[in-house]
Amino acid sequence: MLLSVENLIVKYGNIQALHGISFHVNEGEIVTLIGANGAGKTTSLHSITRLPPPEAPKVVSGDIKFKGQSILKTSPSAVVKDLKVALVPEGRHIFGNLTVMENLILATYAREKGTDFSGEYHRIFELFPRLKERRDQRSESLSGGEQQMLAVGRALMTGCTFLLLDEPSMGLAPVLKYEVFRTLKRLNEEGMTILLIEQNANLALQLAGRGYVLDTGQIAAHGTSEELLGNPEVKKAYLGG
Amino acid sequence: MIETIIQNLINALQWGSFYALIALGYTMVYGVLTLINFAHGDVFMVGAYIAFFVATFILTVLGLPGWIALALTIPVTMILTSMVGVSLERIAYRPLRRKGAHRLYVVITALMCGLILEHANLAILGASRKAFPSLIVEHVYTVGGVSFTNLKIAVIVTAILSFFILQWIVTQTKVGMAMRAISYDKFAVPLMGIPIDSIIVITFALGSSFAGLAGLLFAMSYPVLEPYMGALIGWKAFIAAVVGGIGDIRGAFLGGFLLGAVEILVVAVFPSTYRDLIAFTVLLIILSLKPTGLFGIAKTTKI
User: Fold this and answer.
1) C-beta of residue A84 within 8 angstroms of C-beta of residue A108
2) What is the ipTM of this complex?
């Protein structure tokens, strides 16, 4: 088991966001967390990436283990550097005042000095040819879809082997949504483990092998994608009938 | 006529060099933390005193000649002054940041840190002024009616070199990219595996070390040190940074040289008591025309 979240109770200030949730991700899997707004999906991801205060959700009890070791005391930068876990946050959060290329270069900050990354840059540009055309533009001038591609490309340049994605399809035109999801599928086929948060549950379950349904900070259902797609309650609540 | 212009230009560049070297510390810290580090002018003062003690030690205790003393005083002063800036960040600003304190409290803390530096100096060293030892022999050169000293030229060259070094760091290195990234989106920086605190420490270290360099050059040029020497020049350098466009290194240098030029120009035409009045009025007009500063970009507020 690559990642396991065990009975996690998390608070933001005085508000309890997660009421003891458990889920796990095996190496090479695509797992999705689905659920409505405020169900605790983003909180779950932010707990894993150990974002620094004051953004950090506070773990009250329970544990998050990576390859069997608790990571509750791991620093946010060490999650990226040592565990090779990268988050593509909701809203992309690209560095708009930097060029596309600078965004990618900056993502290699924690990696070994003196490494030649040119092959990896090439691969990002092969995955997302639009970024290559715009490599020297300030990234805030990119369209929403291009920014999402940059956010994914940037996460990949951290050298991650485990990718967390928070609503990667949000605000994208359908054709771009499918493009992003196709890319995720391809990355997974090449060995990337993926934990995906998505409001579009249909789309997410088509991509993922397994899923967890979150409801007000609790796991309401879990199973393989086929099981969840066939589950009448899940269908009714999250899949639009 | 042309001699007068060139003469004043050299004077303006030399005077503006001090503002520029101090302004860059304000602008860099503002860039990463949106904090106006009001203690920075006093870090400049501490830098001048550090230079004084280091230079005096090397000259009198070690008995080395002036040029060696200068060559050693520059790096030692820059390193020690950067440690002062980094300590301020560690002791005063970081705990507030950890607690998520409102910016107002951090700014007030910065003001108090400046006052503490001034008054600690006063308490420890007393009110008497210190005379900075002469490290190099000043030569006056006169070329076609324009006269300048080797020291003046050294100050200008140092400031310009500093600009290119810092501009290179900020635009070409990963640390510089991280500094710019923090100013745009602090949330995403740790997601790149970048420890934010270490970037903040580097920023304070760089800004303070150049304030220390400014302190040394200032003390060599005007060799009388007193605890409040950093107050007014610090305020002016801060204003220069804002007029140039705070957050941008180019703005700090442009603003610094501009303020130097305006001051020298005013003194060339009007009685010297008019200097600050007219200089600040000019800056006020520039800001009212371009409130984001000359290099500033109106930042879109993100939700």
Assistant:
1) no
2) 0.91
